[in-house]
Amino acid sequence: MPDHATVTSVLNHYPDVVIRQVEPLQGAGGFSGAAFWRISTSKAQLCLRRWPREHPTQTQLQAIHDVLYHAFANGFRKLPVPLRSQNGQAFLTADGHFWELAPWLPGVADFDAHPSPERLDAAMLALAQFHRSVEALALRPGSPPGITNRREQLSQLCATGTSELMPAIERMEPSEFQWRLAIILSSFDQNAARVQSLLAVASHVRAPRQPCIRDIWHDHVLFQGEEVSGIVDFGALQSDHVACDISRLLGSLVGGDREDWTRGLAAYQVLRPLTADELMLVDAYDQSTVLLSGMNWIQWLAIEGRVFEDEERVQNRLDQIILRLLQM
After folding, report:
1. How far apart are CA 44 and CA 131, in angstroms?
2. How far, in Å, CA of 82 to CA of 75, rounded?
């Protein structure tokens, strides 16, 4: 973590913010590499975010902020719109990182602890509201970028084979990761051909592309009671088809429960109806996400040897992936 002087230097660019307390939160339980501080002021609580050096670029971060400001101006207020510094900047550079200061959104990401049909409806409706608020930024119809990228990634994995991955898993230091990664690898080999065929069909769909969150899942949707109070973490935002967000959120909230999927899709379509092709895209995104997310974890843990601050949280994430794989 950076020293207190660096944090103070960043906050000094917001002279109207009267700071009472600065609470470091490390990575706040996430996997992105970002760091966070809860800032208590005389008027409200704020969130100071330090982006990882690797991502995003200045151009990408500016584009993310432009979308957030656009959504806010068009009525979607449940998001962390960055405050402007004394020079009118939405983000600053310090210690080799980009930094931003935004309102601390109320609520807790506790759907798993307190699931309900009403909460599921609220989450999907909030997602539809966000999509509607930025639909004016849509690009002309085309093949969804996420489908193209997943098809290429899966084709490469199938072409190179996975025979070298098991030895890499076996060489890992003894941990609770090994047996989980072995199950994930076995499930990939069983399902790759089917998902590859599904992506091939989906790649022929020409559909509208617009700003999508792309990493909207359980931990990024905040609730107060039965209502969504905020959506956080837009670091992966890019133009894609809304199906990528729908599948990501539904899969993280209800797993493979088809009755809940039907309800969630119905709640979303109250505000934004989906065509038959778009519903097929939802399925293609979901199935490929389940298959490839496990392979990403094998790459990070067994090949690259990444270390995460909360191993139990990683284990829980792997367990969720395994459960979805077994439901495919």
Report:
1. 28
2. 16
